[in-house]
Amino acid sequence: MFKKTKEKINSLLGRKKKTDTTQETVITEPIANQSRAKQNRAKADAPKSAEAEAGKSKTRKPRTRRAKADSSKAGGSGKEGSRKEGSRKERAGKDKAGKDSSRKGETRAGKGKPAGKRAQKIKDPEATLEAKRYENPVASRTLILKTITDNGMMTESSVFETLHVRPDQEEGVSRRLAAMVRDGQLIQNRRGGYLPVDEKHFIRGHVIAHAEGYGFLVPDEGGDDLFLSAKQMRGVLHGDRAIVTVSGIDRRGRREGSVISVIERANTTLIGRLFNDDGVVYIVPDNKRITENILIPADKVGTATAGQIVKVEIIHQPTKNRQAVAKVVDVIGEHMAPGMEIEMAIHNHGIPYEFPVEVSKAAAQLGEEVKDKDKQGRLDLRGVALVTIDGEDAKDFDDAVHCEPRDMSKGGWKLTVAIADVAHYVDIGSALDESAYDRATSVYFPGRVVPMLPEEISNGLCSINPDVDRLCMVCEMIINRDGEIESYDFKEAVMRSHARLTYTQVAQALEDEMAREKIAHIYPHIANLYEMYQCLDKARRGRGTIEFDTTETVIEFTHDKRIKSIRPSVRNEAHKIIEECMISANVCAAKFIAKNKLPCLYRVHEDPTNEKIEDLRGTLSDLNLKLGSPSRKIESRDFALLSEEIKGRDDYHMIQTLMLRSMKQAIYKAENSGHFGLALTHYAHFTSPIRRYPDLLVHRALKHIVRKHKKADYLYTQDRMMQIGEHCSNNERRANEATRDAEFALKCEYMLDKIGQDFDAHVSGVVSFGLFVELDEYYVEGLIHITTLPKDYYVFDPKTHLLTGENRGIQFGLNDKVRIRVARVDMDDRKIDFELISEH
Questions:
Q1: Which of 82, 176, 679, 788 reaches 20 to 30 Å from 313, CA-CA?
Q2: Interatomic CA distance for residues 530 and 572, integer angstroms
Q3: Among 85, 40, 42, CA closest to 66
Q4: pLDDT by residue (tens digit) across 727-781?
């Protein structure tokens, strides 16, 4: 079956049989175009084709038309049709990339009308939208894809000719073709021809590499991952986007992939430690998913010396037959220097940490204060006692709240949530917007923030600092005594924060009279917030919201960037008040946009898969527990009820961990499918546009609706929103991985002087090769390898997460209490090894 599929793919692509010993797969032109190409190549006097020139340089100069020839053919009338006709004939005489369209009667790209006759101009279905986006609009992706699909393989010049591209549009169309190749909509062969991706035979996705050398392709369209052998991984790196075809099924029943082409490289720069072995210079990448060393030519080392941590720029990406080659562009610092962990995480994960000059300039030009003209036409809320409630070390304040009771006859409260109006300052398509989109989120490392927007905006003009005027988008809600949102409204407003409060201040004021006196001028509004919160919280529990008891840590540093302490973060009543206020506003935003049917991003948490639920139920049945009813669809309430039932059990944390692992991650999607964890039908992120790009998109949609603009004038399509959602979800994962890596590296360094010491710990993970345990005192995780456990033959059960000795019956499971000794700390590999001393 796979042989026939491969033959069919070769036939579709016109692929030549391999006659050399290389392992690269080459996409060539169809046979008909090959023969034409040979005829044209025989014309030695023909000038170089535009496609060949484009292959050498990404920047193309538009070809100039012969003004005299055009004017003579047009009879001096200047008619556009005559100018285009003359240009097409001129291009036809120069084209040598697979067709001689100047020959009478020959058709373009195998179809269409003879070149000697003027073809009817093709109508672009997205012409209106393109005209709104760009001053000089070009053919849309939809039109280009349809044209190439209809005509078969097309070169760049044949696309220009078929679509009647003007000289001033050529660079734009050329860039769009390159972007479509990058996004996997088209494939470009070695001769410059473009082919549409055949969805039936090719699979687009991004590569996830494993430290052992193999990897997986995660399909863009979802579904099971494709296994990529170490041989297939030679030409790709972790994070690359590629097109693969299914080449077989491995012994485990997994689909195996064969890489057809790499459509986007994820790694242009890397971080690693520099080595020099007898004149052979290379770096060992700090990212353990990149398993091959990167070669550095002797003249590309610069001032770096062996042992230093350096940043390199890849000058030759890897192929199946050659390692990647790079040059040193920066020396990050000495190995083990303070603060190096965060620097390496930033570079390893490709997080943009410097703003381009034009972005910084644009932010500075906005000024430090809100201009009077920008306040005009807005709801004036400066007299409303809105306050911000954040952490002690917060610098960017993007939300403020106020609550007041309604009159006794109506009951309930009016809740006002005001959010910084970032969209007012960040225009669509501006340098600020493009930079924010590229980052998609602020990244919060211990002791350091890499912001999505320049600090002039995030900490200045858009930060809701006390006693200064700020522009905001406000959501006004009426909350009844049952914790239900009876009505809501969105408005553009101007506000002034009446106080900058902290979570600790508010929590203490709710419990202590002396703390209350310190904020006496604002406390009545805090009391209203707390009373309303209690109703919202009751409604939250009533609808079945899932709540897990997890511990997050706070790392405190000394003045020289060394870890002073690691402590658990405290979640008090003030945190819960603000959380409920933000959730309420997010729900209203999602419902308002969905009601008006504008494309937007929703925060979606999809239902667990049936397979995951059945596995979890199997484990729970062994513990005499149940999760919902097998006769109906699983609900959030089922998880909430189980969480309540297991509280107080010795195996509570183990069961909670299994419940967490059965659920999916929340992502951003253009289609609303609800939020399983919060038990909500509509949810979007509205409340943090300073630090999340999806929130900025929500603000733009709300403004479009509030200003009563026509739906047709909205600048985002559903397809574009889907692409943005995937991008933002990926960057959110990237940020989480980077902060996790930095935190663990810092914890490794913290444990260096504790080797040989004993600690109490608990099992946080069970795998086939041992136990992951977390220290109770420091919240640091390490591995007890199976070879250091009491002698026995251990069998791992992935469903129950148990490791059981067959001979002695010794059993280890999640949350088991153990006593361990720190055996080894490896800073290079980010590993901490423990030895088991005893079980509790």
A1: 176
A2: 12
A3: 85
A4: 999 999 999 999 999 999 999 999 999 999 999 999 988 999 999 999 999 899 9
- For tokens 């010396």, the residue is 305
What proportions of the chain, in percent to the nearest 5, are helix, strand and coil?
A: 35, 25, 40
Where are any strands of DSSP class E within 744-790? 758-767, 770-775, 781-785
Are the C-beta atoms of residues 677 and 603 closer than 8 Å to each other? Answer: no
Alpha-carbon distance of 115 to 102, in angstroms, equals 6
What stretch of H or E contains 703?
helix 693-706
Structure token digits, residue 229: 């052998």
How large is the C-alpha radius of gyration of the chain? 31
Two structure tokens written together for 423: 């969209």
User: Which helix (H) or strand (E) covers residue 502, if one does?
Assistant: strand 500-502
Please say whether the beta carbons of 244 and 257 come within 8 A: yes
Residue 192 Ramachandran class (φ > 0 left, ψ -120 to 50 alpha, else beta)? left
The more confident residue out of 204 and 599 is: 599
- CA-CA distance, 817 to 530, in Å (whole number)? 38
Token digits for 144?
């280009």
Return the DSSP state at 260.
E
73 pLDDT above the threshold of 90: no
Query: The tokens of 27 are what?
Result: 């996409």
Q: How far apart are CA 149 and CA 223, in angstroms?
A: 25
**Does the predicted model carry a pTM greater than 0.90?**
no
Look at residue 76 and give its three-state secondary structure: coil
Q: To the nearest 10°, the Cα dihedral for 616, 617, 619, 625?
A: 120
List 68's β-bridge partners, or say none: none
Residues 766/814, Cβ–Cβ less than 8 Å: yes
- Strand, helix or coil for residue 414: strand
Q: How far apart (Å, rounded) are the C-alpha atoms in residues 836 and 773?
A: 10
Would you say 401 and 529 are in contact if contact means Cβ atoms under 8 Å apart?
yes
Q: For tokens 């290389």, what's the residue?
A: 22
Looking at beta carbons, which pairs linking 579-582 to residues 24 or more positions away fall under 8 Å?
580/533, 580/536, 580/537, 580/540, 581/401, 581/415, 581/417, 581/529, 581/533, 582/399, 582/417, 582/687
Burial group, residue 186, by CB count within 10 angstroms (0-12, 13-18, 19+): buried
The answer to whether the beta carbons of residues 266 and 318 sit under 8 Å apart is no
How many angstroms separate the CA atoms of 485 and 476, rounded? 10
User: At 525, is the secondary structure helix, strand, or coil?
Assistant: helix
Q: How many CB atoms lie within 10 A of CB 383?
A: 9
Question: What's the mean pLDDT when you consider all of the chain?
Answer: 84
491 vs 707: CA distance, rounded Å:
9
